[in-house]
Structures are given as structure tokens and as C-alpha cells.
Amino acid sequence: MSFWEYVGNRHQQLLTDAYQHASAVFQCMVLATLIGVLLGVVTYRSDWAGNLATAATSTILTIPSLAMIGLLIPVVGLGVPPTVIALTLYGLLPIVRNSIVGLRGVDPSLVDAAKGIGMSRVMRLARVELPLAWPPILTGIRVSTQMLMGIAAIAAYASGPGLGNEIFRGLASLGSKNALNQVLSGTLGIIVLALLFDAAYVLLGRLTIPRGIRV
């Protein structure tokens, strides 16, 4: 059976796996973004705190994904929970680092001007600092998403959702007539999803970043 015949026969299952893969990555990115930006906001004013947050999230990223999921299985079980926890933790580093860099890069004179017109600390953060820091934060989100697209395939090891199931089934049946088709369809599906997500981020950047800041 050729690759395209395999895809045609299995298109419904492949679409379901692709949807689950994209959904898992998207939801984990939302969590990682909220946590990462919050960590950046809390730590960017202090050198040691910022370095600690960056070092901690860097350390998490050095843990092999199979080991991470394997360690989580006895604690939270199989399926979605270990997938969500692992992907969220792996997605933190680029967001935390870029949030700190972006917030530290805001022109102090603009913050002083906002303070001078009576803005509170929270208002300055929400209306001045975070909007100006948004471009590097969005870049961090894009980098995290690309990483998680590949890492999410390992979720199949813990009976998690996504295209990794197709890859693992192919690897487990190497030598059979459809093994290569399974691995190839899962891999290409992840690549296509990564490109679609990145295109969506480019569009989001054009809609949310003023032209002057983009330049």
C-alpha cells in the first residue's frame, strides 16, 4: 500500500489524532503562557530572581521527555494528565526568558511618564509595560509551540492523545507493510500542524503589534 493510499484509508483517524495533538499543544501553551508571563512579571525587576526563574525553567527543559512522563505516570496516572503537566513545564523557558527580557527592555522614561500622570503599578504594567514587551513574549510563545509540537508525540508513551500514537504504532511494528506509512503520516502531520500554528502566530503578531513597534 502506498503512502497516499494509507492516508486515504486512515484519514478519519489521522484527522482525529491531529485534532487531539493540536488541542493538547494549544491548551498547554495557554497554561505555559499564563504561568510564564506571571513568573516574568514577578521576577524581572530583580537580577537574582530573574536568573533563578530562568535557571529553574532551563533545568526542567534538560529532563528527557520520556523520563519526565515516566516519572509522572506513578503520580497522576496515564493519559491526559502527564501529557498536560509535561508539556506545560517544557513550554515555560522561552516564555519566561522573553517576558523578562521584554519587560526589562521597556524604556524607563515611558514608565516614569505613566507614573507621573497617576497610573498605579498595576495600570503601568497592564497599559504600558506588557504591551511594549508583547513582541518578545510572542516570539517566546512561538518557540515554545514549535518545541511542544515535537515533544507532544512522546505523550503516546503514556497513552496520551495525538499523532504520536501513529508514530509509536509504526515503530512497534517495524517490518510490517504499513509501519513506514504510520511513522511518516504521524511525522508529516506534526510538521503541518507546526507550520499552521506558526502562521497563526504571524497573523496574531500583525494584528496585535503596532507597525512602529514591529519595525
What does the model show?
By secondary structure, the protein is mainly alpha-helical. The chain has ten helices and no strands. The chain has helices spanning 3-43, 47-62, 65-76, 80-90, 92-104, 108-116, 121-151, 164-172, 179-208, 211-214.
Count of DSSP H/I helices: 10
- What structural class results from the helix and strand content? mainly alpha
Mean pLDDT: 89
The separation of the N and C termini measures: 51 Å
Count of β-strands: 0
Shape: elongated
Portion in strands: under 5%
Helical proportion, percent range: over 70%
* Poorly predicted spans: none
Largest pleated sheet: none
Radius of gyration: 20 Å
- Summarize the helix and strand pattern as letters: HHHHHHHHHH
Counting copies of identical and different chains, the oligomeric state is single chain
Topology:
Elements: H1 3-43, H2 47-62, H3 65-76, H4 80-90, H5 92-104, H6 108-116, H7 121-151, H8 164-172, H9 179-208, H10 211-214
Question: Could you give a short description of this structure?
Answer:
The protein has 215 residues and is mainly α. The N and C termini lie far apart (51 Å). The model has no long low-confidence stretch (mean pLDDT 89).
